[in-house]
Design goal:
270 residues; single chain; 6 strands; 2 domains; Lambda Exonuclease, Chain A
Length: 270
């Protein structure tokens, strides 16, 4: 018998229907926690490389190449619900792309070995005989109507254009952010033309990390901490907090399985 069946069986005997409904609600909300992916994936994540100067930390990135992230820390269920809603919106567009047969690759995770960089493109589409990167974003109606473009999405697409060009050896110069209004289903397309100047600071971060990685391997030198102590807000939210301050579970090395590069299947449909 499943956990949900056991909960329901116990609750059926309760005379208070509100208590029964509460038990069901709590069990359903646990599904969001159970569905989380706790896998330790190897590599720098594009989202971390694109962080603002205030949020970006070289120490965090270098340590992430050698040690596991913090364990046992659950995100709030409310946030997990938001993520799930976003995933559903993405799946809507992925289905439409496949039905229209314009998909070259959907949600494909790639790895640039020379930079230890892991990145996932929402969709690589064939439009007007050109391969174009699409990144799907959602906004509430207020933001949708107020904001002309989508700055974070445009930065992300420009970075992916660079990364995909390096990965394939084939120039990719055009992409767009597909913005979906959550409240009324209106959409807008924000075009992105590749800019070498805009991507340069983030490429430099990747190069700097490779230098620091070698220093760590050869001389055991770790970049300085960005946070004053482990209790400041940024440290509390950092995935490498335990490894950085050697607290909690401390520095647990990544196993060999975590370092497998997911590089296959770039241009296969589906």
């Amino acid at each position: 018998m499943s956990n949900m069946s056991k909960d329901l069986a116990a609750a059926k005997t309760a005379s208070d229907s509100e208590m029964w409904a509460l038990l069901v609600k709590n069990r359903l909300e646990k599904l969001f926690l159970e569905a989380r992916d706790h896998e330790n994936r190897y590599g720098l994540h594009a989202s971390a490389i694109l962080a603002s100067d205030n949020d970006f930390c070289y120490r965090e990135q270098v340590l992430s190449l050698f040690y596991k992230m913090n364990q046992g820390e659950n995100l709030p269920i409310k946030l997990l619900k938001i993520f799930a809603q976003g995933n559903a919106m993405h799946e809507k567009w992925y289905t439409l792309f496949r039905q229209a047969k314009i998909d070259v690759a959907i949600e494909r995770s790639l790895f640039l070995e020379q930079y230890d960089l892991s990145f996932t493109i929402d969709a690589l589409l064939s439009i007007f005989k050109e391969e174009i990167i699409c990144d799907v974003k959602s906004q509430n109606t207020f933001a949708f109507k107020k904001q002309r473009g989508h700055p974070s999405g445009e930065k992300q697409v420009n970075f992916y254009l660079w990364a995909l060009t390096v990965y394939t050896g084939i120039p990719h110069r055009r992409g767009f952010v597909l913005v979906d209004s959550k409240d009324d289903q209106e959409i807008k397309v924000v075009p992105v033309i590749y800019s070498k100047e805009k991507v340069a600071p983030y490429v430099q971060r990747l190069k700097d990390i490779q230098v620091m990685k070698r220093e760590f391997i050869e001389e055991h030198i770790v970049p300085p901490r960005k946070c004053k102590n482990c209790d400041v807000k940024r440290a509390a939210q950092c995935n490498m907090r335990d490894a950085c301050f050697n607290i909690g579970m401390g520095r647990v090395k990544l196993d060999a399985g975590s370092k497998q590069k997911r590089t296959q299947g770039l241009l296969q449909k589906g």
